[in-house]
Amino acid sequence: MSEFNDVKETGADTEVLIVGAGPTGLTLACDLARRGIHARLVEAADGLFPGSRGKGIQPRTLEVLDDLGIVDAVLRDGGPYPRMLLWEDGRPAGEHSMVERAEGPGVPYREVWMLPQWRTQELLYERLRALGGDVEFGARLTGLAQDGDGVIAHFAHAPSVRAAYLVAADGGRSAVRGALGVRMNGESLTEEPTLIADVRIEGLDALHWHVWPKAADGPLALCPLPGADVFQMAAMNARLPEGEADAPLARVRELVAARTHLDGEQVKEVLWASDFRASAALADRFREGRVFLAGDAAHIHSPAGGQGLNTSVQDAYNLGWKLGLVLRGHADPALLDTYEEERAPLAAGMLGLSTRLHRTGGTRRGHETHQLDLSYRDGSGDGPGDGLRAGDRAPDAECSLPDGGDRAPDAECSLPDGGDGTALRLFDAFRGPHFTLLALGGTEPPENLPPLVRPYEVPSAPGYPERALCLVRPDGYVALMTESPGDVDAYLRRLRSL
Protein backbone atom coordinates (compact mmCIF):
# COMPACT_ATOMS: atom_id res chain seq x y z
CA MET A 1 0.00 0.00 0.00
CA SER A 2 1.65 3.18 -1.17
CA GLU A 3 -0.91 5.88 -0.45
CA PHE A 4 -3.42 6.63 2.31
CA ASN A 5 -6.23 6.00 -0.20
CA ASP A 6 -5.00 2.41 -0.49
CA VAL A 7 -5.20 2.10 3.31
CA LYS A 8 -8.74 3.49 3.29
CA GLU A 9 -9.73 0.82 0.79
CA THR A 10 -8.73 -1.84 3.34
CA GLY A 11 -11.02 -0.21 5.91
CA ALA A 12 -8.29 1.60 7.86
CA ASP A 13 -8.93 5.02 9.40
CA THR A 14 -5.27 5.98 9.43
CA GLU A 15 -1.90 4.67 8.33
CA VAL A 16 -0.28 4.72 11.79
CA LEU A 17 -1.95 4.94 15.19
CA ILE A 18 0.43 6.13 17.92
CA VAL A 19 -0.72 5.48 21.49
CA GLY A 20 0.89 7.86 23.98
CA ALA A 21 1.83 11.53 23.55
CA GLY A 22 5.05 11.60 25.54
CA PRO A 23 8.46 12.34 24.00
CA THR A 24 8.42 9.03 22.07
CA GLY A 25 4.99 9.44 20.54
CA LEU A 26 5.43 13.12 19.76
CA THR A 27 8.82 12.50 18.10
CA LEU A 28 7.37 9.73 15.93
CA ALA A 29 4.30 11.81 15.04
CA CYS A 30 6.51 14.72 13.92
CA ASP A 31 8.73 12.44 11.86
CA LEU A 32 5.78 10.78 10.14
CA ALA A 33 4.02 14.09 9.52
CA ARG A 34 6.98 15.54 7.63
CA ARG A 35 6.99 12.39 5.48
CA GLY A 36 3.36 12.89 4.52
CA ILE A 37 2.25 9.82 6.48
CA HIS A 38 -1.28 9.98 7.89
CA ALA A 39 -0.93 9.25 11.62
CA ARG A 40 -3.19 9.72 14.62
CA LEU A 41 -1.66 10.36 18.03
CA VAL A 42 -3.86 9.54 21.02
CA GLU A 43 -3.23 10.12 24.72
CA ALA A 44 -5.19 8.73 27.67
CA ALA A 45 -4.61 11.82 29.84
CA ASP A 46 -6.41 15.11 29.32
CA GLY A 47 -3.18 16.96 28.51
CA LEU A 48 0.57 16.63 28.15
CA PHE A 49 2.65 15.31 31.05
CA PRO A 50 3.18 18.25 33.43
CA GLY A 51 6.43 17.32 35.22
CA SER A 52 10.14 17.91 34.69
CA ARG A 53 11.05 14.21 35.06
CA GLY A 54 13.28 13.48 32.01
CA LYS A 55 15.24 16.72 32.00
CA GLY A 56 18.59 15.73 30.41
CA ILE A 57 18.96 15.86 26.62
CA GLN A 58 22.07 14.11 25.33
CA PRO A 59 24.14 15.43 22.38
CA ARG A 60 22.83 12.74 19.99
CA THR A 61 19.23 13.61 20.88
CA LEU A 62 19.97 17.28 20.18
CA GLU A 63 20.99 16.17 16.68
CA VAL A 64 17.63 14.45 16.26
CA LEU A 65 15.80 17.56 17.45
CA ASP A 66 17.88 19.59 14.97
CA ASP A 67 16.64 17.36 12.15
CA LEU A 68 13.05 17.73 13.38
CA GLY A 69 13.35 21.52 13.42
CA ILE A 70 13.15 22.40 17.12
CA VAL A 71 16.74 22.47 18.35
CA ASP A 72 16.95 26.28 18.33
CA ALA A 73 13.97 26.46 20.67
CA VAL A 74 15.43 23.71 22.89
CA LEU A 75 18.72 25.61 23.18
CA ARG A 76 16.84 28.86 23.83
CA ASP A 77 14.65 27.46 26.61
CA GLY A 78 17.16 25.11 28.24
CA GLY A 79 20.66 25.43 29.62
CA PRO A 80 23.82 23.51 30.54
CA TYR A 81 23.89 21.35 33.65
CA PRO A 82 24.79 23.28 36.81
CA ARG A 83 27.66 22.15 38.98
CA MET A 84 26.73 19.83 41.82
CA LEU A 85 27.26 21.36 45.29
CA LEU A 86 27.44 18.91 48.19
CA TRP A 87 26.26 19.92 51.66
CA GLU A 88 27.21 18.41 55.02
CA ASP A 89 26.23 19.69 58.47
CA GLY A 90 24.85 22.85 56.91
CA ARG A 91 28.11 23.76 55.17
CA PRO A 92 29.37 23.32 51.58
CA ALA A 93 31.48 20.17 51.33
CA GLY A 94 32.73 20.40 47.76
CA GLU A 95 31.41 20.74 44.24
CA HIS A 96 31.99 19.15 40.86
CA SER A 97 30.65 19.03 37.33
CA MET A 98 28.17 16.21 36.82
CA VAL A 99 28.49 15.83 33.05
CA GLU A 100 31.32 15.90 30.52
CA ARG A 101 31.29 17.78 27.26
CA ALA A 102 31.27 15.72 24.11
CA GLU A 103 34.62 16.00 22.34
CA GLY A 104 36.00 15.13 18.93
CA PRO A 105 35.25 16.28 15.39
CA GLY A 106 31.84 16.06 13.80
CA VAL A 107 29.86 16.89 16.96
CA PRO A 108 27.78 20.07 16.64
CA TYR A 109 26.22 19.88 20.11
CA ARG A 110 28.78 19.22 22.83
CA GLU A 111 26.82 19.98 26.00
CA VAL A 112 24.32 17.73 27.73
CA TRP A 113 21.39 20.13 27.76
CA MET A 114 18.89 20.50 30.57
CA LEU A 115 15.26 21.15 29.71
CA PRO A 116 12.25 20.03 31.78
CA GLN A 117 10.39 17.19 30.11
CA TRP A 118 7.16 19.17 30.06
CA ARG A 119 8.84 21.86 27.95
CA THR A 120 10.46 19.35 25.58
CA GLN A 121 7.01 17.89 25.00
CA GLU A 122 5.47 21.32 24.44
CA LEU A 123 8.06 22.12 21.76
CA LEU A 124 7.48 18.79 20.01
CA TYR A 125 3.72 19.37 20.19
CA GLU A 126 4.09 22.85 18.70
CA ARG A 127 6.17 21.36 15.90
CA LEU A 128 3.61 18.63 15.28
CA ARG A 129 0.82 21.17 14.97
CA ALA A 130 2.92 23.25 12.58
CA LEU A 131 3.24 20.11 10.45
CA GLY A 132 -0.52 19.67 10.43
CA GLY A 133 -0.85 17.08 13.19
CA ASP A 134 -2.45 17.11 16.62
CA VAL A 135 -3.05 15.01 19.74
CA GLU A 136 -6.37 13.40 20.63
CA PHE A 137 -6.49 13.65 24.42
CA GLY A 138 -8.70 11.60 26.74
CA ALA A 139 -8.46 8.48 24.56
CA ARG A 140 -7.89 5.53 26.91
CA LEU A 141 -7.15 2.27 25.11
CA THR A 142 -9.15 -0.73 26.36
CA GLY A 143 -8.13 -3.41 23.88
CA LEU A 144 -6.87 -4.22 20.41
CA ALA A 145 -6.93 -6.91 17.74
CA GLN A 146 -5.00 -7.34 14.52
CA ASP A 147 -5.05 -9.28 11.29
CA GLY A 148 -2.89 -9.44 8.19
CA ASP A 149 -4.00 -6.01 6.97
CA GLY A 150 -4.08 -3.88 10.10
CA VAL A 151 -4.84 -3.26 13.76
CA ILE A 152 -8.07 -2.17 15.40
CA ALA A 153 -7.83 -0.32 18.71
CA HIS A 154 -10.75 0.10 21.11
CA PHE A 155 -11.15 3.05 23.48
CA ALA A 156 -13.23 3.68 26.60
CA HIS A 157 -15.11 6.75 25.43
CA ALA A 158 -14.28 7.06 21.75
CA PRO A 159 -14.89 5.11 18.53
CA SER A 160 -12.56 2.29 17.64
CA VAL A 161 -9.75 3.10 15.20
CA ARG A 162 -8.33 0.83 12.51
CA ALA A 163 -4.75 1.46 11.35
CA ALA A 164 -2.23 -0.22 9.11
CA TYR A 165 0.27 -0.14 12.00
CA LEU A 166 0.09 0.74 15.71
CA VAL A 167 2.97 2.03 17.84
CA ALA A 168 2.84 1.73 21.62
CA ALA A 169 4.45 4.81 23.15
CA ASP A 170 2.32 4.72 26.29
CA GLY A 171 5.00 4.34 28.93
CA GLY A 172 6.18 1.82 31.47
CA ARG A 173 2.66 0.67 32.32
CA SER A 174 1.77 0.34 28.64
CA ALA A 175 -1.84 -0.67 28.01
CA VAL A 176 -0.83 -1.80 24.53
CA ARG A 177 1.92 -4.06 25.84
CA GLY A 178 -0.52 -5.52 28.35
CA ALA A 179 -3.10 -6.19 25.66
CA LEU A 180 -0.46 -7.99 23.59
CA GLY A 181 0.70 -10.09 26.54
CA VAL A 182 4.33 -9.05 26.05
CA ARG A 183 6.36 -9.56 29.22
CA MET A 184 8.90 -7.22 30.77
CA ASN A 185 12.02 -8.91 32.10
CA GLY A 186 13.96 -7.06 34.76
CA GLU A 187 14.18 -6.11 38.40
CA SER A 188 13.44 -3.43 40.92
CA LEU A 189 16.60 -1.54 41.83
CA THR A 190 15.33 -0.09 45.11
CA GLU A 191 13.05 -1.35 47.87
CA GLU A 192 11.89 2.12 48.87
CA PRO A 193 10.44 4.72 46.49
CA THR A 194 11.93 8.05 45.51
CA LEU A 195 9.77 11.16 45.67
CA ILE A 196 10.31 13.65 42.86
CA ALA A 197 8.67 17.07 42.69
CA ASP A 198 8.87 20.42 40.93
CA VAL A 199 8.96 23.08 43.64
CA ARG A 200 9.24 26.83 44.00
CA ILE A 201 11.68 27.61 46.77
CA GLU A 202 13.03 30.88 48.14
CA GLY A 203 16.52 31.68 49.38
CA LEU A 204 18.47 29.00 47.50
CA ASP A 205 20.86 29.92 44.71
CA ALA A 206 19.94 28.62 41.27
CA LEU A 207 23.56 28.31 40.12
CA HIS A 208 24.14 24.89 41.67
CA TRP A 209 22.55 21.48 41.89
CA HIS A 210 22.33 21.19 45.69
CA VAL A 211 22.77 17.72 47.21
CA TRP A 212 22.60 16.52 50.81
CA PRO A 213 24.05 13.00 50.34
CA LYS A 214 24.38 12.11 54.04
CA ALA A 215 20.96 13.17 55.27
CA ALA A 216 19.79 10.83 58.04
CA ASP A 217 16.72 9.43 56.28
CA GLY A 218 18.20 9.38 52.81
CA PRO A 219 19.77 11.71 50.23
CA LEU A 220 17.88 14.74 48.94
CA ALA A 221 18.74 16.90 45.94
CA LEU A 222 17.41 20.19 44.60
CA CYS A 223 18.26 20.88 40.95
CA PRO A 224 17.46 24.31 39.45
CA LEU A 225 15.51 24.06 36.21
CA PRO A 226 16.25 26.53 33.41
CA GLY A 227 13.76 29.17 32.46
CA ALA A 228 11.84 29.33 35.74
CA ASP A 229 12.25 29.85 39.48
CA VAL A 230 11.69 26.12 39.98
CA PHE A 231 13.80 23.27 41.38
CA GLN A 232 13.38 19.57 40.77
CA MET A 233 13.51 17.87 44.16
CA ALA A 234 14.47 14.20 44.44
CA ALA A 235 14.27 12.53 47.85
CA MET A 236 15.25 8.88 48.21
CA ASN A 237 13.38 6.62 50.64
CA ALA A 238 10.34 8.86 50.54
CA ARG A 239 6.84 8.49 49.23
CA LEU A 240 4.00 10.83 48.39
CA PRO A 241 1.15 10.53 50.90
CA GLU A 242 -2.41 10.16 49.74
CA GLY A 243 -4.90 12.59 51.15
CA GLU A 244 -5.89 16.21 50.85
CA ALA A 245 -4.93 18.46 47.96
CA ASP A 246 -2.18 20.18 49.97
CA ALA A 247 -0.52 16.90 51.01
CA PRO A 248 2.36 17.21 48.47
CA LEU A 249 3.30 20.67 49.78
CA ALA A 250 3.26 19.52 53.40
CA ARG A 251 5.32 16.43 52.58
CA VAL A 252 7.92 18.35 50.58
CA ARG A 253 8.29 20.92 53.34
CA GLU A 254 8.73 18.11 55.85
CA LEU A 255 11.46 16.48 53.77
CA VAL A 256 13.33 19.72 53.11
CA ALA A 257 13.27 20.65 56.82
CA ALA A 258 14.40 17.19 57.96
CA ARG A 259 17.16 16.56 55.41
CA THR A 260 18.68 19.97 54.64
CA HIS A 261 19.72 23.11 56.48
CA LEU A 262 16.81 24.97 54.88
CA ASP A 263 13.53 25.90 56.53
CA GLY A 264 10.62 23.94 55.10
CA GLU A 265 8.63 27.16 54.83
CA GLN A 266 11.05 28.29 52.11
CA VAL A 267 9.15 25.88 49.85
CA LYS A 268 6.33 28.05 48.51
CA GLU A 269 4.64 25.81 45.97
CA VAL A 270 4.64 22.28 44.58
CA LEU A 271 3.82 22.32 40.87
CA TRP A 272 3.98 18.56 40.32
CA ALA A 273 4.92 15.54 42.42
CA SER A 274 5.18 11.80 42.03
CA ASP A 275 6.98 8.83 43.50
CA PHE A 276 8.47 5.75 41.89
CA ARG A 277 10.70 2.76 42.52
CA ALA A 278 13.70 2.65 40.23
CA SER A 279 13.51 -0.36 37.94
CA ALA A 280 15.37 -1.86 35.01
CA ALA A 281 13.35 -3.93 32.54
CA LEU A 282 13.30 -4.88 28.87
CA ALA A 283 10.38 -6.18 26.83
CA ASP A 284 10.49 -9.76 25.50
CA ARG A 285 10.10 -8.33 22.01
CA PHE A 286 9.65 -4.92 20.40
CA ARG A 287 7.18 -6.08 17.76
CA GLU A 288 4.07 -8.24 17.62
CA GLY A 289 2.71 -8.40 14.08
CA ARG A 290 1.70 -4.88 13.09
CA VAL A 291 2.24 -3.45 16.57
CA PHE A 292 5.56 -1.95 17.71
CA LEU A 293 6.71 -1.09 21.22
CA ALA A 294 8.81 2.05 21.69
CA GLY A 295 10.19 4.08 24.55
CA ASP A 296 9.27 3.10 28.11
CA ALA A 297 6.74 0.63 26.71
CA ALA A 298 9.77 -1.40 25.56
CA HIS A 299 12.43 -0.56 28.18
CA ILE A 300 12.36 1.01 31.64
CA HIS A 301 15.50 2.72 32.98
CA SER A 302 16.75 4.08 36.26
CA PRO A 303 17.05 7.88 36.03
CA ALA A 304 20.79 7.50 36.64
CA GLY A 305 22.71 8.51 33.53
CA GLY A 306 19.82 10.30 31.83
CA GLN A 307 19.20 7.55 29.24
CA GLY A 308 15.46 6.85 29.36
CA LEU A 309 14.02 9.77 27.41
CA ASN A 310 16.97 9.84 25.03
CA THR A 311 16.79 6.14 24.19
CA SER A 312 13.05 6.54 23.67
CA VAL A 313 13.48 9.39 21.19
CA GLN A 314 16.01 7.27 19.30
CA ASP A 315 13.45 4.44 19.08
CA ALA A 316 10.98 6.75 17.38
CA TYR A 317 13.66 8.18 15.08
CA ASN A 318 14.68 4.68 13.98
CA LEU A 319 11.12 3.53 13.33
CA GLY A 320 9.74 6.63 11.61
CA TRP A 321 11.70 6.49 8.36
CA LYS A 322 11.14 2.76 8.02
CA LEU A 323 7.38 3.11 8.38
CA GLY A 324 7.49 5.98 5.90
CA LEU A 325 9.34 3.98 3.23
CA VAL A 326 7.13 0.92 3.64
CA LEU A 327 3.86 2.85 3.58
CA ARG A 328 4.91 4.73 0.45
CA GLY A 329 5.99 1.57 -1.34
CA HIS A 330 9.70 2.44 -1.38
CA ALA A 331 10.69 -0.54 0.78
CA ASP A 332 9.57 -4.07 1.42
CA PRO A 333 7.67 -4.49 4.73
CA ALA A 334 10.53 -6.73 5.89
CA LEU A 335 12.47 -3.49 6.53
CA LEU A 336 10.32 -3.11 9.65
CA ASP A 337 11.96 -6.24 11.10
CA THR A 338 15.16 -4.24 11.45
CA TYR A 339 13.54 -1.96 14.06
CA GLU A 340 13.77 -4.63 16.77
CA GLU A 341 17.02 -6.02 15.36
CA GLU A 342 18.68 -2.61 15.73
CA ARG A 343 16.98 -1.07 18.73
CA ALA A 344 16.65 -3.98 21.18
CA PRO A 345 20.43 -4.57 21.58
CA LEU A 346 21.12 -0.85 22.00
CA ALA A 347 18.28 -0.44 24.49
CA ALA A 348 19.67 -3.37 26.47
CA GLY A 349 23.10 -1.75 26.45
CA MET A 350 21.74 1.60 27.65
CA LEU A 351 19.72 -0.25 30.28
CA GLY A 352 22.90 -1.89 31.53
CA LEU A 353 24.67 1.48 31.64
CA SER A 354 21.94 3.25 33.62
CA THR A 355 21.66 0.29 36.02
CA ARG A 356 25.43 0.32 36.62
CA LEU A 357 25.40 4.05 37.30
CA HIS A 358 22.48 3.60 39.66
CA ARG A 359 24.19 0.85 41.65
CA THR A 360 27.53 2.61 41.90
CA GLY A 361 25.93 5.90 42.86
CA GLY A 362 27.86 7.60 40.09
CA THR A 363 27.27 11.35 40.02
CA ARG A 364 29.59 11.96 37.06
CA ARG A 365 28.49 11.08 33.55
CA GLY A 366 31.01 10.61 30.76
CA HIS A 367 31.01 10.19 27.01
CA GLU A 368 29.26 6.82 27.17
CA THR A 369 26.02 8.59 28.10
CA HIS A 370 26.13 10.96 25.09
CA GLN A 371 24.86 8.22 22.71
CA LEU A 372 27.16 9.47 19.94
CA ASP A 373 29.10 6.21 19.68
CA LEU A 374 26.08 3.92 19.36
CA SER A 375 26.19 1.94 16.14
CA TYR A 376 24.04 -0.43 14.11
CA ARG A 377 27.06 -2.23 12.64
CA ASP A 378 26.31 -5.80 11.65
CA GLY A 379 29.91 -6.98 11.73
CA SER A 380 30.17 -7.29 7.95
CA GLY A 381 33.10 -4.87 7.83
CA ASP A 382 32.02 -3.39 4.52
CA GLY A 383 33.55 -0.18 3.26
CA PRO A 384 37.07 1.06 2.58
CA GLY A 385 39.42 1.23 5.54
CA ASP A 386 38.80 0.62 9.23
CA GLY A 387 37.09 3.94 9.97
CA LEU A 388 33.52 4.97 9.31
CA ARG A 389 31.39 1.99 8.34
CA ALA A 390 27.81 1.02 7.62
CA GLY A 391 25.79 1.29 10.83
CA ASP A 392 27.85 4.13 12.32
CA ARG A 393 26.50 7.58 13.05
CA ALA A 394 27.44 9.86 10.14
CA PRO A 395 29.46 12.73 11.69
CA ASP A 396 28.92 16.37 10.92
CA ALA A 397 31.54 18.41 9.04
CA GLU A 398 31.64 22.04 7.97
CA CYS A 399 32.19 22.44 4.25
CA SER A 400 32.30 25.21 1.67
CA LEU A 401 31.27 25.18 -1.95
CA PRO A 402 34.23 25.20 -4.33
CA ASP A 403 33.02 28.14 -6.41
CA GLY A 404 33.57 30.78 -3.74
CA GLY A 405 32.46 31.92 -0.32
CA ASP A 406 34.09 31.21 3.02
CA ARG A 407 36.01 27.99 2.60
CA ALA A 408 36.65 25.72 5.53
CA PRO A 409 40.37 24.85 5.66
CA ASP A 410 39.82 21.14 6.18
CA ALA A 411 36.75 20.33 4.06
CA GLU A 412 34.94 21.47 0.98
CA CYS A 413 31.89 20.20 -0.83
CA SER A 414 29.63 21.10 -3.70
CA LEU A 415 25.95 20.81 -4.40
CA PRO A 416 25.14 18.92 -7.59
CA ASP A 417 23.88 22.09 -9.25
CA GLY A 418 26.99 24.11 -8.44
CA GLY A 419 25.60 25.85 -5.36
CA ASP A 420 26.01 29.52 -4.59
CA GLY A 421 29.33 29.57 -2.75
CA THR A 422 27.86 29.54 0.75
CA ALA A 423 29.08 27.41 3.65
CA LEU A 424 27.42 24.04 4.16
CA ARG A 425 27.37 21.64 7.09
CA LEU A 426 26.86 18.01 6.28
CA PHE A 427 24.05 18.01 8.82
CA ASP A 428 22.38 20.67 6.64
CA ALA A 429 22.52 18.17 3.80
CA PHE A 430 21.20 15.35 5.98
CA ARG A 431 18.30 17.36 7.43
CA GLY A 432 14.98 16.07 6.16
CA PRO A 433 13.23 12.77 5.42
CA HIS A 434 15.55 11.67 2.58
CA PHE A 435 18.65 9.53 2.09
CA THR A 436 21.85 11.49 1.39
CA LEU A 437 24.57 10.26 -0.96
CA LEU A 438 28.04 11.77 -0.44
CA ALA A 439 30.33 11.29 -3.42
CA LEU A 440 33.70 11.69 -1.69
CA GLY A 441 36.99 12.48 -3.39
CA GLY A 442 35.61 12.57 -6.92
CA THR A 443 33.96 9.16 -6.75
CA GLU A 444 31.42 8.82 -9.54
CA PRO A 445 27.83 8.53 -8.21
CA PRO A 446 25.26 6.31 -9.92
CA GLU A 447 22.97 7.79 -12.55
CA ASN A 448 19.20 8.15 -12.23
CA LEU A 449 18.95 8.08 -8.46
CA PRO A 450 15.38 7.95 -7.12
CA PRO A 451 13.90 11.15 -5.59
CA LEU A 452 14.30 9.81 -2.06
CA VAL A 453 18.12 10.14 -2.42
CA ARG A 454 19.86 13.53 -2.54
CA PRO A 455 23.43 13.41 -3.93
CA TYR A 456 26.28 15.75 -2.95
CA GLU A 457 29.79 15.97 -4.36
CA VAL A 458 32.24 16.24 -1.46
CA PRO A 459 35.95 16.59 -2.33
CA SER A 460 36.86 15.93 1.31
CA ALA A 461 35.31 15.84 4.77
CA PRO A 462 36.90 15.17 8.18
CA GLY A 463 35.99 11.76 9.55
CA TYR A 464 35.12 10.32 6.15
CA PRO A 465 37.18 8.22 3.71
CA GLU A 466 39.17 10.15 1.11
CA ARG A 467 37.37 8.37 -1.69
CA ALA A 468 34.02 6.60 -1.33
CA LEU A 469 30.30 6.72 -1.91
CA CYS A 470 28.67 7.17 1.49
CA LEU A 471 24.92 6.61 1.59
CA VAL A 472 23.41 8.10 4.76
CA ARG A 473 20.07 6.90 6.06
CA PRO A 474 17.25 9.32 6.94
CA ASP A 475 18.10 8.85 10.63
CA GLY A 476 21.71 9.97 10.13
CA TYR A 477 23.41 6.56 10.19
CA VAL A 478 25.57 5.22 7.38
CA ALA A 479 23.62 2.78 5.22
CA LEU A 480 26.45 1.91 2.85
CA MET A 481 30.11 2.75 2.34
CA THR A 482 31.51 1.70 -1.04
CA GLU A 483 33.41 2.88 -4.12
CA SER A 484 31.03 1.20 -6.56
CA PRO A 485 27.96 3.01 -7.96
CA GLY A 486 26.49 -0.42 -8.59
CA ASP A 487 26.50 -1.15 -4.85
CA VAL A 488 24.35 1.92 -4.24
CA ASP A 489 21.86 0.81 -6.89
CA ALA A 490 21.86 -2.68 -5.43
CA TYR A 491 21.21 -1.38 -1.90
CA LEU A 492 18.21 0.67 -3.05
CA ARG A 493 16.85 -2.29 -5.03
CA ARG A 494 17.33 -4.51 -1.98
CA LEU A 495 15.21 -2.16 0.14
CA ARG A 496 12.27 -2.95 -2.10
CA SER A 497 12.79 -6.69 -2.05
CA LEU A 498 14.03 -7.61 1.42
Taking all residues together, what is the mean pLDDT? 88
Distance, first to last CA: 16 Å
The percent of residues in helical segments reads 25-40%
Q: Please give the number of β-strands.
A: 28
* Derived structural class: alpha+beta
List low-pLDDT spans.
1-9, 379-385, 401-412, 414-419
Largest sheet: 8 strands, mixed
Secondary structure tally, helices: 11
Rg over CA atoms, rounded to whole Å, is 24 Å
Instruction: Note the overall shape.
Output: globular
Beta-strand share of residues:
25-35%
List the helices and strands and how they pair.
Blueprint: H1 4-9, E1 14-19, H2 23-34, E2 39-43, E3 56-57, H3 59-68, H4 71-77, E4 79-80, E5 83-88, E6 91-96, E7 113-114, H5 117-130, E8 135-137, E9 141-146, E10 151-155, E11 161-168, H6 175-180, E12 184-188, E13 194-201, E14 208-212, E15 220-225, E16 230-236, H7 247-259, E17 267-276, E18 279-283, E19 287-288, E20 291-293, E21 299-300, H8 308-327, H9 337-360, E22 398-400, E23 412-414, E24 423-425, H10 426-430, E25 435-440, E26 453-460, E27 468-472, E28 478-482, H11 485-495
Parallel strand pairs: 1-2, 1-11, 2-8, 5-14, 11-20, 25-26
Antiparallel strand pairs: 3-7, 4-7, 5-6, 9-10, 10-11, 12-18, 13-16, 13-17, 14-15, 15-16, 18-21, 19-20, 22-24, 23-26, 25-27, 27-28
Helix pairs in contact: 2-5, 2-8, 8-9
Can I get a quick summary?
With 498 residues, this protein is α+β, with helices and mostly antiparallel strands.
Q: What does this protein structure show overall?
A:
A hairpin with a 4-residue loop joins β9 (141-146) and β10 (151-155). Helices cover 26% and strands 28% of the residues. The protein is α+β, with helices and mostly antiparallel strands. It has helices at residues 4-9, 23-34, 59-68, 71-77, 117-130, 175-180, 247-259, 308-327, 337-360, 426-430, 485-495, and strands spanning 14-19, 39-43, 56-57, 79-80, 83-88, 91-96, 113-114, 135-137, 141-146, 151-155, 161-168, 184-188, 194-201, 208-212, 220-225, 230-236, 267-276, 279-283, 287-288, 291-293, 299-300, 398-400, 412-414, 423-425, 435-440, 453-460, 468-472, 478-482. The chain starts with a helix and ends with a helix. It has eleven helices and 28 strands.
